[in-house]
Structure prediction request, 714 residues.
Amino acid sequence: MKTENPIYIPLENVDSEHCALIIDKGLDDVKEISSHAIELNNQRAIVTAKKHPEEAVQAAVTQIRALGYDVTTVKQTFPVTNMSCASCAANTEATLNNQVGVVKAEVNYANTSAKVEYIPSLVTAQQLKEAVQAAGYDLLINDSNKAKESLADIKANQYQNLRKRAIGALVLAVPLFVIGMFFMDMPYGNYIMWALSTPMVFIYGRQFFIGAWKQAKHRSANMDTLVAISTGTAYIYSVLITLFPNFMHQMGIHSHVYFEAAGIVIAFILLGKLLEEKAKGNTSSAIKKLIGLQPKHVTVVHDNGHQKQISISSVKVGDILLVKPGERIAVLSLLLWIILGGENGLSQGIVAFVTVLVIACPCALGLATPTAIMVGVGKGAERGILIKDAESLELAKKVNAIILDKTGTITEGKPQVTAIKWFEEFDELHQNILYSIEKSSEHPLADAITEHLKANSQFLNGITIENISGQGIEGSFDQSTYIIGNELLAKERNIETLAAAKNWIDKQLEAAQTVVLFCNDKKVIAAIAIADQIKPTSKQAVQQLQKDGITVYMLTGDNEQTAKAVANQLGITEYRANVLPADKAAFAKSLQQKGKIVAMVGDGINDSTALAQADVSIAMGKGSDIAMDVAKMTIISSDLAKIPEAIHLSKNTVQAIKQNLFWAFIYNIIGIPIAAGILFPINGFLLDPMWAGAAMALSSVSVVTNSLRLKWKN
Prediction:
């Protein structure tokens, strides 16, 4: 259905007719839009959608950003309640993404949160909350502190309620199991089991039926749907057998009841949920140290092993799916049993129907990736490795080339002046000029020089400066020009370096010290030798990285002699000297073009471009805010030895994900055919639904427990 209602998308930094024209032309390529215009004065785009307004907004925002402009949005993370499985998270995510004004929404079942980017002029947080509530869940939109407190209270209450229900169901499950297994022929046995199973199904298991009804109203399904249909079918079938045994016998239906299956499946699932919630609580304890986590879900697994959660409407033929619509498989098995099962076909079909529905619950698959990621990120936080991007945690194991900035990464980042050599007779004015120019600079080497000179120097007013990126600084005082920088800068300015100065400089460079030249526009006035100690753990870290098969590259702005001296001390064979900030990003890109997976480690503003270019970016915690903002990982202690530790953490995390997926898939691949009765024609074996319930519960618990093993790995 076509919509003619205009949608107003607020724009940012569109300050000319030229910019507006670029966006307007770019929107021509957006197939979801029927018409569009740009209002430059109001800084907004006006679009109308061909069919779905929410898709039109999302496509328009994507196109505007691809053109180099942006849209005014808000990014918030909201706690989500009332989710019982991964399908609930998928339903909540689809609901949010279907709201006009939501640019992107991701829901993480493992930590019960929704990360939403939306346009506040089109949709409000309250409207998002109402949409989620209509779908049967809830979104907490209070301010962050209140939301956290509210969520903590809700989780505590839910856990206590779940605990009471699980204990109550298990108490009734014991006599129900004993009678169902060993005393089926006792007088009034069916009625006793009916009495025992009724509170188990409709009191302790009522949340499954409530949840299934809410999902049915929205033409959706989740774990509650599978449990409600399976246990409800077994219960109703057994009630009919109990009340009308003769009639059912005349119809050729076997008179066996399945009250114990209905009740004990509920008990096992409640026990499994209780253990799962307890384990998830342990999982999230370390992650609370972090601000947030980019969520990762698994519902589709591609041939190359890549996992991604998508809406059911995006599923393609050939995809390996998390089993969501399990009832379709079960209905097929039920029909086959009725047609082919002989005189007991219906009763055996009911068993297969119930068992397949129970076994098809997708909880283990839904937990496989998020729990491992959460534990991995939490383990990193405990070890002083803050991981902002879960994708980087997964990708780090593939790194085969790592670029290390020298200053502040390999070295302490605390340079100290070891000597100043004046090549003219000492002049107090020159010392004050040197001090004043460096005082105006923010470079770490400038700080070292000013710290060394401050006791005997005076700041001069009237100094003007200009930074020369990657080479030094130029200053003017009393109509004279001075430069402070490296030898390359002096050569570019055709400044004479005396033989005596050259000999002194070479000796300092051979000792792995950095030399800064202080010159006027004709010759070198003085040279300053600066030492920056190599961190005690740097050599060990480099050796470990090389042992892991990773090629280590060192980049530095220092000259060849200093770079070589430092590289030799660390055993690094690949290094680059006289590197400008822009060269670092270009070098990272050149490695990527050769097929390398590149990690960049740096600590300064000059490293930010290279950090952004790298596949995995790691900042030192004592470095600049910009570097830490760009990087996906931060080493709090600035200890280089944490880098191989982060890579090993990545390997362990990905290994846990693969193990989780393997066991979750094996559970479904083997369990569903057995539940459907594939072994019955061979040996007469038909899996009891209550054991299917136990297996389903244990599969989720085993996935979470396997993820928790990461906490205890070194």
Notes: The first strand starts at residue 7 and ends at 12. The chain is about 55% helix and 15% strand. The chain has a mean pLDDT of 77.
